[in-house]
Amino acid sequence: MSLRTKLKKILPSISITEQEALDAGDVWLEGSIYRGKPDFAALRDVPAATLSQEEQAFLDGPVAELLEMIDESEIQSGTHLPEHILEFLKKERFFSLIIPKKFGGLEFSPYANSTIVATISTKSSAVAVTVMVPNSLGPGELLLHFGTEEQQNHYLPRLANGRDIPCFALTSPEAGSDAGGIPDIGVVKEGEYQGEKVLGLEVTWDKRYITLAPIATVLGLAFKVQDPDHLLGDKEDLGITCALIPNTHPGVELGNRHDPMGVRFYNGTTRGEKVFIPMDFIIGGQKNIGRGWQMLVSCLGAGRGISLPALGVSVSQVSFKGAAEYAAVREQFGLAIGQFEGIQEKLADIAGKTYLQEAMRVLTTEGLGMGLKPSVVTAIAKYHMTEIGRDVLNSAMDIQAGKAIQRGPQNTLASGFVAQPIAITVEGANILTRNLMIFGQGVMRCHPYLQSMVESIHSQEKDADATFNRILRKTVGYSTGNALRAFKHGLLPFTAPSASSLPEVREYEKAVHKLSSRLAVYADFSLLVLGGKLKQAEMLSARLGDVMSYMYAAMASIKYYEQKVSSADRAQAAPYFHYATRWALQQAEQALHAFLDNFPASGTRKFMRFLTWQYGYKMPTISDDLVRELAHQAQLDTAIKAQLTHLVKPTPGDGHDINEQAYKAKLANLESLAKVRKAIKSKQIRSGVRFAETLDNALTAGVIDANEYASLVDYNRKRELAIRVDEFDYDMNLLRPDGTRADGQDVSLRSAS
């Protein structure tokens, strides 16, 4: 019995849905990481993302106007998205970011798309999701790539100007993460449409979690097609198919809503029982019956890399800006809380991870802007950037403490905190994405010979043995090269290459090469020892996926520092860069150790350790000094901090504006504040019970002059407003700081309480 025949009994074949998913995306930087030779030359050749004049004008115009219109407290306390906001989104073509100009769309770049969605999200998650979905996986994207000319000409102009609102229905109660197992069925039949007898499909479906479904005018629908009467050919099960159905079509049920954490975007159900649709409703026409899964995974890769990562970056930038300003302004025990090491530890982590988030956002959208659809990279971006966003937000909540848990217009974190779990669950739940997709899909896409080997093992061709043996020889040579490279980098770590012109980058570039060489060896041995069982060993494969992910993050950090940070700002940016890159490398190394510690074959585990010299932790560490340095930088008003919080656009009177005014007022009065503190310490003046008394004492004693006094009084007023939280009367009507109710009625704070 040949080796190929033996392996055929052990290794599972690739299913049709798996094959379509593998064929749908591109291999990009992740391929070189997996193979042990991270391609920094290709990384540096990626064109830097910039906004065109038209894209910048859209941000400065319609987006800025939208932000001023949004009252998040009003949205969250209401039932629907305000009609004037929905109409504004239609009028200004927010739903047409990806639609070509020839159809009336804006045709913006992935980077611009991401920036717009993320900017809106800093003010309102509900509005951001409403904009995000039509510009991600949905009818617009599917029509662009697969629709007939007639479908494109009819629908795309209507989607561009908001006459049609789209939704796409994939998830069923019985099929969530296993989207390929949807139970919704379309049966090929003859029926009547517009008074004529035509060939079509009788479709029955039950879908949930469908964003925009309650207000959609056109329904994108995924279902399986069956042909029991063989009207189309010999096959009965024809596969997943995508159709586009007007909401007015007889039998279509839309309108019922879910309530996703109280975030007021439209999300709901759609159902239909034996609804007859003509073949013309199929996206791309009858020839695309059965191509639905291929169409979906092809489009999902790009959308997954833009929309949800944008929300993760948005919440990180909001958290960073708010936490840094609050830490500088809020005082306890006579000191700004940003001077306490407990706060500094959290604040540095927020700042470093926000830098990493922005670096990953930029690199991922740059790749998409090149026309690539890297399915593994976009899965990495979706999982890690939403998880890091959640982590950063939790730290910001800890710093702001009581201010962070009181809802109202002044709370800049509450909306993101409530909405963040939504980003974790959609477009592939994060557990699925990490445990099955990143490495599970990556191993087949990134290994140079594995997919061909599996195909040859299960091939029915006469020369299958010869083909298999040829591929096997190449695979052995590839694995031997991986082992030798990892052994050399482990024994002689200084041999790892680096081509950066910046000395501070070279250490990290070498580290990525060393970790990558080990990953290649561990992946090879996993396939050799575990074979098809690796698919079920989710915890092991997820750790290898983590290594790939964190090395991609480290490469993004390096590229951002080299290309997006000006030479004049590098000194300010260095602590952010060092923290972010070291954190990513440490996470990758920890994942390697966890993989080895839990590898089931003891002998193989010991051999892998020896081969890669993986006996201890060797990556650069995040020291307490780096934490202090970054926490200090994070509280300064610098160009790099502005760059890393650029998505947050304060509008007059909102929480961001109130916090920023107090923060900038403090920075403007640092010298005067130092005079007052010195006078208190020397007992020249007495500290008052309230800071206003202290200022009066300082003015009387001549410690500060009248101009300084006026400026400090202004700062104190802004500081007191910034550390306040929103109050409501007994019936939960919002009270302004002066005691008046937000609805205009006058009521004192005392009587309200």
Automatic annotation (TrEMBL):
Swiss-Prot/TrEMBL keywords: FAD, Flavoprotein, Oxidoreductase
EC number(s) stated in the UniProt entry for this protein: 1.3.8.7, 1.3.8.8
Segments forming domain Acyl-CoA dehydrogenase/oxidase N-terminal: 65-162
Reactions catalysed: a medium-chain 2,3-saturated fatty acyl-CoA + oxidized [electron-transfer flavoprotein] + H(+) = a medium-chain (2E)-enoyl-CoA + reduced [electron-transfer flavoprotein]; a long-chain 2,3-saturated fatty acyl-CoA + oxidized [electron-transfer flavoprotein] + H(+) = a long-chain (2E)-enoyl-CoA + reduced [electron-transfer flavoprotein]
Domain of life: Bacteria
Coiled coil ranges: none
All residue ranges annotated as the Acyl-CoA oxidase/dehydrogenase middle domain in the record: 167-267
Top EC class of this enzyme: oxidoreductase
Domain called Acyl-CoA dehydrogenase C-terminal bacterial-type: residue spans: 444-728
Cofactor: FAD
A Pfam family recorded for this sequence: Acyl-CoA_dh_1
Similarity comment: Belongs to the acyl-CoA dehydrogenase family.
Protein name in UniProt: Acyl-coenzyme A dehydrogenase
Biological classification of the source: Bacteria, Pseudomonadati, Pseudomonadota, Gammaproteobacteria, Alteromonadales
